[in-house]
Amino acid sequence: MGGGGEQTDRITGTNGRFSTYTWEEVQKHTKFGDQWIVIERKVYNVSQWVKRHPGGLRILGHYAGEDATEAFTAFHPDLPLVRKYMKPLLIGELEASEPSLDRQKNAALVEDFRALRERLEAEGCFKTQPLFFILHLSHILFLEAIALMMVWYWGTGWINTAIVAVLLGTAQSQAGWLQHDFGHLSVFKTSRWNHLVHKFVIGQVKGASAGWWNHRHFQHHAKPNVFKKDPDVNMLNAFVVGKVQPVEYGVKKIKHLPYNHQHKYFFFIGPPLLIPVYFQFQIFHNMITHGLWVDLAWCISYYVRYFLCYTPFYGVFWSVLLFNFVRFLESHWFVWVTQMSHIPMKIDYEEHQDWLSMQLVATCNIEQSSFNDWFSGHLNFQIEHHLFPTMPRHNYWRAAPHVRELCAKYGIKYQEKTLHGAFADVVRSLEKSGELWLDAYLNK
């Protein structure tokens, strides 16, 4: 299962014990087709397993040659089960003289964060309240039912249709937060049930693909705001972000668009087009090219349901227009909520930080309120979500004070903003990056 790599003949010695390796040896195995990772001091050859990894093809490669213990713990709710499946990949362990952490990471900070996780587990922060998710799904279905009833009783006039579009857009946005919960395995105790319901919610309720989402989103969590590893900062040359990329583009005289005006054209090609154009194309392209036929079947079932409900009233042409307008509304909601916690933060190349430090420089929180919790799907607690992605979101508020305390102990900045301030910071950060690009383009 885990074959591949140039030193697999060293798995065991004559005494039957596993081979031992130095960090220098481990760090030689970072290329596709030859990738090793370290978890809890054990060395695993994941060269072939990357192709079958449920979290997607690239996520293990992002940790090749590194200690992946913290990421491993964060992503897997049932660690004993996963360790059992990892046994065929085990090729050895670190030499006794080698530190457990690579690249001079702060061992005391890592140990304190591990202790914090254990404390939160003991306090029940990783236990789900089923009623919360039942009510959340119910309110999504209620919004969809109300929208259809409004068309049924009051017809297809412009005002009624506008209200229907808002209701459907709200339902789609809230379904997006719900599929996110199941995708992170934070609802059911077993991964199997989380995966099954995830396919249903993202496929039948939203018309998207679980496989596509896993591939993108887990990379983002594994290495947030890291160029070439986080797909969310791959702006397809439409934007330059952070402080490093704008200068690089400017020095190289790259000008696909007038980036010094990106904070203005963001309003026209960012929130309006991401879901109805880019994601829409990418989802179907990914399902077909990667043979995700189960996802495709669920996705098609959504479109069948939608057009069966609305074509009798609007006809095909106007039903298509209504569908795209709903996606247009949802796209604005999605972009502002997801980017308010990341775009204004540090965006750079790989720095091999520990889990806590890496997540805190790339994320910030938005102040808590009943509206903010609902509006953002509790992603106003972006810091806690990134640190503990399998934690049910209704418990983030319980973890937040403990995380703040740990950050204060090590001098790590814990940022919290108002909703309005966070939205404004997205635009301000794009403007600042554009100015850096223009200065480098003209003067360097």
Automatic annotation (TrEMBL):
Residues 18-95 form the Cytochrome b5 heme-binding domain. It comes from Phoxinus phoxinus. Keywords: Fatty acid biosynthesis, Fatty acid metabolism, Lipid biosynthesis, Lipid metabolism, Membrane, Oxidoreductase, Transmembrane, Transmembrane helix. Its main location: membrane. The keyword Lipid metabolism applies. SMART domains: Cyt-b5 (SM01117). This is Cytochrome b5 heme-binding domain-containing protein. It is found in: Membrane.
